[in-house]
Automatic annotation (TrEMBL):
<dbReference type="InterPro" id="IPR055346">
    <property type="entry name" value="Fe-S_cluster_assembly_SufBD"/>
</dbReference>
<dbReference type="InterPro" id="IPR011542">
    <property type="entry name" value="SUF_FeS_clus_asmbl_SufD"/>
</dbReference>
<dbReference type="Pfam" id="PF01458">
    <property type="entry name" value="SUFBD_core"/>
</dbReference>
<feature type="domain" description="SUF system FeS cluster assembly SufBD core">
    <location>
        <begin position="80"/>
        <end position="311"/>
    </location>
</feature>
<dbReference type="InterPro" id="IPR000825">
    <property type="entry name" value="SUF_FeS_clus_asmbl_SufBD_core"/>
</dbReference>
<protein>
    <submittedName>
        <fullName>Fe-S cluster assembly protein SufD</fullName>
    </submittedName>
</protein>
<dbReference type="InterPro" id="IPR037284">
    <property type="entry name" value="SUF_FeS_clus_asmbl_SufBD_sf"/>
</dbReference>
Length: 336
């Protein structure tokens, strides 16, 4: 189990000696408990505001602590940081009843400098329920931001997630899924587009505990300047989870001499009758394609942006909800 951070307890801040955090050394930047953030307010206009009238804002760690869905719902959940140099943490539980359906549009918005944000989210899906979680990370360049989601599925439930982020000074989105099998499905996608000195860590653990479960995972990223991208994906197939079909892929572009990508895909399999695979590639843009586009009159920067977008857009296209897909597509275009 990965370390649980408590901003009030510096002994909980992991270092690179903790295997699950070896690429994201919290203690390097945070050695003492930060001063607590004061209360704050924000206008009701998050990045997904046009898609739903149901918006919940957690500002500087204060706000709703539980969301319950019994039918079909589209909810925007905003975590907003407005206090310079302060720290806050929040815990929110999301319960999706049996047979219910939820589109959760989650944003992490940095409106301050040098803050520390720590969020824990628990999602419980009843039998036959469906939940889609779209996560947009827009933290400040000098922020420390940690998000941990713990997802538990009942038989027949379906969980889809797409996390897109531009990083922070140190940022980590962590997802743990307890997969019951029994016809349930999980799609766990990620996208990072990092520039400057930003760092983003997408870490996930999916544990298949029952028969006939499906997991599909695709993460793509790009880094420029001295940015650093981290992908850690682990799929565990427990004994008795026969019939599991689990596939994981991570692919990244390094667009500068000093950019860095660290990737650690893992499959841990204790069952026999399974289909599991993972793939990982890290490389640069195709120089021939870049030359071709420049020979047709495109400036070099525009050509690089178009090629990078073409590489990353596969993750965006896997978002089934049209409105959410267009919000993410626009977000990506403005960052390349």
């Amino acid at each position: 189990m990965s370390a649980l951070i408590d901003l009030r307890d510096p002994s909980s801040f992991p270092t690179r000696r903790v295997e699950a955090w070896k690429y994201t050394d919290v203690r390097r930047y945070l050695r003492a408990a930060p001063p607590p953030s004061p209360e704050g307010e924000v206008a009701p206009a998050g990045p997904f505001a046009a898609l739903t009238g149901e918006e919940t804002a957690v500002v500087n760690g204060r706000g709703a602590d539980r969301i319950t869905v019994t039918g079909e719902a589209v909810r925007a959940l905003r975590f907003v940081s407005t206090a310079d140099g302060a720290g806050h943490q929040a815990e929110v539980a999301v319960d999706v009843a049996a047979g219910a359906s939820l589109l959760l549009l989650e944003s992490h918005e940095g409106r301050a400098a040098g803050y520390v944000s720590n969020v824990r989210l628990s999602l419980t899906l009843g039998a036959g329920a469906t939940a889609t979680r779209i996560v947009l990370g827009e933290d400040a360049a000098d922020a420390l931001a940690f998000v941990r989601a713990e997802v538990v599925l009942q038989p027949g439930a379906t969980f889809n997630q797409t996390t897109v982020t531009s990083g922070a000074k140190l940022q980590r989105f962590e997802t743990h899924v307890r997969h019951p099998g029994e016809g349930g499905g999980v799609r766990l996608d990620g996208l990072y587009a990092l520039t400057g000195e930003r760092h983003s860590d997408l870490t996930s653990v999916v544990t298949h505990a029952g028969r006939d479960g499906l997991t599909s995972q695709l993460t793509k990223g790009s880094v420029r300047d001295t940015a650093r991208g981290v992908f850690q994906g682990k799929i565990v197939v427990e004994r008795g989870a026969d019939g599991t079909d689990a596939r994981m892929g991570h692919h990244a572009l390094i667009l500068s001499e000093r950019g860095e990508v660290d990737a650690k895909p893992e499959l841990i399999i204790y069952a026999d009758d399974v289909q599991c695979a993972h793939g990982n590639t890290v490389g640069a843009l195709d120089e021939q394609a870049l030359f071709y586009m420049q020979s047709r009159g495109l400036p070099a920067d525009e050509a690089r942006a178009l090629l990078t977008q073409a590489f990353l857009i596969e993750v965006v296209d896997r978002i089934e909800h049209e409105g959410a897909r267009e919000v993410v597509r626009t977000w990506l275009e403005t960052r390349l």
